[in-house]
Specification:
Helix content is 46%, strand content 15%. The protein has 550 residues and is α/β, with parallel strands linked by helices. Strand 13, helix 9 and strand 14 form a beta-alpha-beta unit. Helix 10 packs antiparallel against helix 19, helix 11 crosses helix 15 and helix 17 packs antiparallel against helix 18. The mean pLDDT is 95.
């Protein structure tokens, strides 16, 4: 890994503020958290993780009405709930904010006015879907029909989840209002449009410069061939959002102000952390690295609209946008009736969050692949690998140090070449973390765990301890074993932060950094060992399933 100082800003796509987080959200949030925790363990690296609630749009307004709340009250409740879930899943977000904020309103106005000044925004009168029963213009997400490109049924009015196409709601075949079921009629309305096509050449170049995964670049090539089109950035009242300057019944479309919310969350964080400046992180001339982690369903907005908005507003563009796939449960889409739609809090009420963090890490990679949470495989990996291979190393060795040596480690390692083999793996494991190849990193770490267990099996400290003359050798063997365990804990700390805290307390060491592997713990006093984790039982999984059925 490079020793050059790095300054990194990482974001995850803002969860929508009209409902609870579920395990689908946790895939990307945990992936981002593991990556940023890895960065924070590197010397000479500053890494900031920014996120928040996407808090505007008609769904917020409608959900608040159903609950007899104001939109602001709903947002505050959901934001607090999200923050509690993230904390308990050990997702260490430096700032979790909301797009309904003064910082975001000011930045949206700045971006809008800069584009207006250079001719990137125009007004047109267009025909729009209108619900004759509800007497309101219908947002894209409240119209469904057949995709005009591939014919898939029950697709939303702005993009197809099957083929990825984006389009106008008026292009849908056999459309219907999801609010009333009525067939929408067309009415005219004047709207603001962002001329995305003005950035075709820039985006064609940028998207081919390794800022994106290859699969994304190939998908974008399809859209470039069809031609980039103007993007409607306004919505009619009634709507919950920011008024467009000079307008009373026109609002900025949520997808304009949502990504700008990354900047607003950063600005909010900087209010209490003045060492973080807007100039260092968001202006064009800076060396800070900017990475966005997102789900594959919103790649169009983050890889085309967002870079173009930033460029035209004279702000810096991302170093990379990383997409991940969707989550299925036991091979099926998440379903409330089948008990496979699992809220984050429901999971937390039944299972250790690190079980899921570890399992997802065994599955995630740098490609855009859907992940399946298979509960039989889940239990096997937790019990056989996390508990049986990793935790077991400490539990089987610490008891001898506690019992015979007054918690004192030996002054030497019994097999220095094996320790060197463990530390030599650091570069490859760090590279896999950096490249988001988490499944490969975990596979390599668990291979080392096998070697550590084989070492203890071969040395048999339990047999040697029966002979008082062999006790110095027992101390050296168990010291060696615990040092191998410590190296493995350093490698796994981004995935298992709570276990790492327990291990740091057990070993009586400060927070572990990647560089700590170079120096083994010798002539060091540890604490008496306490169990670090317990095996997962089938009954716990069944209880989680039952609690998820609606």
């Amino acid at each position: 890994m490079s020793q050059q100082p790095r300054q990194i800003l990482t974001t995850y796509a803002l969860p929508y503020a009209n409902g609870s987080l579920h395990l689908g959200h946790m895939v990307g949030l945990i992936q981002t958290d593991i990556w940023t925790r890895f960065q924070k363990m590197q010397e000479n690296t500053s890494c900031l993780f920014i996120c928040g609630c996407d808090s505007h749009g008609t769904p917020i307004m409608i959900q608040a009405e159903k609950l007899h709340l104001t939109p602001e009250q709903l947002i505050a409740q959901i934001k607090s709930e999200h923050e509690n879930d993230l904390r308990d899943f050990q997702v260490d977000v430096d700032n979790y904010y909301t797009t309904h904020s003064p910082e975001n309103q000011a930045m949206v106005k700045t971006v809008f006015e800069r584009h207006l000044a250079i001719g990137n925004i125009e007004k047109h009168t267009i025909k729009q879907a209108f619900d004759p029963e509800k007497n309101m213009f219908l947002p894209d997400r409240y119209i469904k029909g057949e995709c005009p490109r591939c014919g898939a049924k029950d697709q939303y009015g702005d993009n197809c989840e099957v083929c990825g196409a984006t389009y106008s709601p008026t292009e849908l075949k056999n459309p219907y209002s999801t609010l009333s079921g009525a067939k929408p009629i067309e009415k005219e309305s004047e709207h603001y449009f962002f001329k995305l096509q003005n950035y075709t050449e820039l985006l064609e170049t940028w998207t081919r410069q390794k800022h994106l995964q290859e699969q994304v670049t190939n998908k974008l090539d399809e859209w470039f061939k069809m031609g980039l089109r103007e993007w409607d950035i306004s919505r009619d009242a009634p709507y919950f959002g920011f008024n467009i300057p000079g307008e009373t019944t026109k609002y900025f479309y949520v997808w304009l102000d949502a990504p700008i919310g990354y900047i607003a969350s950063f600005q909010n964080f900087a209010l209490t952390h003045p060492e973080y400046t807007f100039e260092e992180y968001w202006t064009k001339e800076n060396s800070t690295e900017l990475y966005h982690f997102i789900g594959k369903d919103i790649m169009y907005f983050h890889t085309l609209f967002w870079p173009a908005l930033l460029k035209g507003a004279d702000l810096r563009m991302p170093n990379a946008v990383y997409c991940h796939g969707f989550l299925t449960i036991d091979g099926q889409k998440m379903s409330k009736s089948r008990g496979t739609f699992i809220k984050a809090r429901t999971y937390l009420n039944h299972l250790n969050p690190e079980y899921l963090r570890y399992y997802l890490a065994t599955k995630l990679n740098e490609r855009i692949e859907d992940l399946d949470l298979n509960f039989d495989d889940f239990m096997q990996r937790v019990n056989a690998d996390f508990i049986g291979k990793f935790i077991n190393i400490a539990s089987r060795s610490a008891s001898f140090i506690n019992k015979y040596f007054d918690n004192q480690l030996s002054g030497h390692l019994s097999q220095g070449e094996l320790y060197a083999e463990f530390t030599k793996a650091a570069g490859g494991i760090a590279s896999k973390y950096e490249k988001r190849q988490l499944s490969q990193a975990i596979r390599e770490i668990m291979g080392l765990a096998d070697l550590a267990n084989q070492y203890v099996d071969q040395k048999k400290p339990w047999a040697l301890a029966k002979d008082p003359a062999q006790l110095p050798e027992v101390q050296a063997i168990c010291t060696m074993s615990l040092n191998l365990f410590r190296v493995l804990m350093i490698y796994l700390k981004p995935v298992l932060p709570e276990t790492a805290k327990k291990v740091e307390a057990f070993l009586k060491v400060p927070p572990l950094m990647f560089s700590d592997i170079q120096t083994p713990l010798l002539n060091h006093t540890i604490e008496t060992f306490k169990p670090l984790a317990k095996r997962l039982e089938k009954a716990e999984i069944e209880a989680l399933r039952s609690a998820s059925v609606e």
